Amino acid sequence: MRTKRQGLIVYFQHMKNIRQIKKHGHLIHASKKMKYALLYVNQEDIEFKMEKLERLPFVSRVVPSYKPDVRTEYEGAKPDKAKQYDYKMGI
Fold this sequence. Notes:
Elements: E1 5-12, H1 18-22, E2 26-31, E3 36-42, H2 46-54, E4 59-64, H3 81-84
Antiparallel strand pairs: 1-3, 1-4, 2-3
């Protein structure tokens, strides 16, 4: 069984602090220009990890990812028109 994971976007002040941020979850991406890091943590630990990261002096803010809250089942989706036509009729 897979564990439920959720992303955290951590905004920081200096790139050298990535090492401390990396200890709190699985680091996916870190941007030098925008000064943020994307971490994945277990969903049951997300509140605890957010509090812990916000207490660090070099962290500006921590934002959770909203992907688990977004519905992925769509109702009434229109089919692709190109797939309806059979282009290989003459072959």
